[in-house]
Write a structure and sequence with these properties.
Elements lengths: L14 E5 L2 H5 L6 H8 L1 H5 L4 E8 L16 E3 L5 E7 L1 H10 L7 E2 L10 H4 L2 E6 L4 E2 L2 E2 L3 E2 H5 L18
Antiparallel strand pairs: 1-2, 2-3, 2-4, 3-9, 4-6, 5-6, 7-8
Length: about 170
């Protein structure tokens, strides 16, 4: 249990993120038009299948945004270069993504049909991997937690000192 005013954390805090598509469906993208189209395809991308990523302590602003910050970190989120993996996307949606992915602000990889000569239709269902850069994926902020904002305002469990023996003798 933590109490007090925590403004930063030190160390390695690995956070496994798992979403069944609700987060992506409800996300708003500040990216370009094609990023917004891909986010609008969320119901077809996810179909309730898991979206997985790993979050860690990182810089959430400035020149180092999205880079790991294991010393006195103020943000937690998905670091630069980490992949957000959408599992078991159907072949037709992957084929559409293959056509428009070059216009997205994020690097999108389609294992099994990533190369120009590979067909997503014949490859069948598979994963879609979206690389995080500058704390964004498809124009969605993935430096999602400012530790100071998250912890400030949480009422402490006990704010007064209790002396159980006082006045008994």
């Amino acid at each position: 249990m933590l109490s007090g005013s925590i403004k930063s954390l030190t160390g390695n805090v690995n956070i496994d993120l798992l979403d069944r598509g609700e987060g992506l469906k409800n996300a708003s993208s500040d990216g370009n038009l094609f990023d917004q189209v891909i986010v609008a395809l969320a119901p077809y991308l996810t179909s309730g299948d898991p979206i997985e990523a790993k979050a860690q302590l990182l810089y959430g602003e400035g020149a180092m945004i999205g880079e790991l910050d294991p010393v006195r970190a103020e943000y937690a989120g998905i670091p630069n270069g980490e992949q957000i993996v959408i599992k078991d996307v159907d072949a037709s949606t992957r084929a559409l993504l293959k056509i428009i992915r070059g216009t997205s602000s994020s690097e999108i990889t389609l294992p099994g049909c990533n190369e120009w000569y590979q067909s997503c239709t014949f490859a069948g269902p598979g994963n879609v991997e979206i690389e995080v850069q500058q704390c964004e994926a498809l124009g969605i902020d993935v430096c999602f937690l400012n530790l100071e904002q998250a912890i400030d305002g949480i009422p402490r469990l006990r704010t007064e000192y209790i002396d159980r023996g006082k006045g008994l003798f």
